[in-house]
Structure to design on (114 residues):
């Protein structure tokens, strides 16, 4: 599956952004999908994940502020990010996997100013 992320930008602390990821392929509903991010000088980390059966999970740092959602009919994955903090700054990547091997699309930059 090929992934295309969009929606990043510059926002002030406390603001919101909505990221979108469009995916190619006819078996989107069978994929575990997620969002990762990589801050400058840090390793890529999992932010949120959407598994089969619409189960979702979040990293502790974003739980309660971010919401992941997917539309299997449209092959899209979204991440609603509210109450953004400067620590949320980074490049956000859409991820998919069907066999445990993660695939990433190109990232979209999110910058939160203090």
């Amino acid at each position: 599956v090929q992934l295309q992320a969009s929606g990043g930008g510059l926002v002030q602390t406390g603001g919101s952004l909505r990221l979108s990821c469009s995916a190619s392929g006819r078996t989107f509903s069978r994929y575990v999908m997620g969002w990762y991010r990589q801050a400058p000088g840090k390793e890529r980390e999992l932010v949120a994940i959407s598994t089969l059966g619409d189960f979702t999970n979040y990293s502790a740092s974003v739980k309660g502020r971010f919401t992941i959602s997917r539309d299997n009919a449209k092959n899209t994955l979204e991440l609603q990010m509210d109450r953004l903090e400067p620590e949320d700054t980074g490049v956000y990547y859409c991820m998919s996997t069907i066999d445990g091997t993660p695939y990433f699309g190109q990232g979209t930059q999110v910058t939160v100013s203090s």
Remarks:
- The chain has a mean pLDDT of 94.
- The first strand starts at residue 3 and ends at 6.
